[in-house]
Specification:
By secondary structure, the chain is mainly α. Helices cover 79% and strands 0% of the residues. It has three helices and no strands. It has helices at 10-20, 23-34, 38-70. The model has no long low-confidence stretch (mean pLDDT 86).
Length: 71
């Protein structure tokens, strides 16, 4: 990468934006930065959000199961 050039990782950008913003807003910002279509980025943002929700639910289920085993 030369001076003034950067490589943008859309997944990392979108992940950071979804941490801070609702998916629609995150998609708008990412589209403005990358020049990619907002609708495609929004679909990825929603997928990221669903993946996180599933991971959180799995973690909670595992914690509940572990708590139940201790009793």
């Amino acid at each position: 990468v030369g001076a003034g050039e950067t490589t943008l990782d859309l997944r990392r950008l979108l992940s950071a934006l979804v941490d801070e913003l609702p998916p629609a807003r995150a998609a708008r910002v990412a589209a403005a930065v990358t020049g990619l279509p907002r609708d495609a980025i929004y679909a990825q943002a929603m997928q990221e959000r669903a993946t996180r929700a599933n991971a959180a639910a799995a973690g909670q289920a595992a914690s509940a199961a572990a708590s139940g085993e201790k009793h």
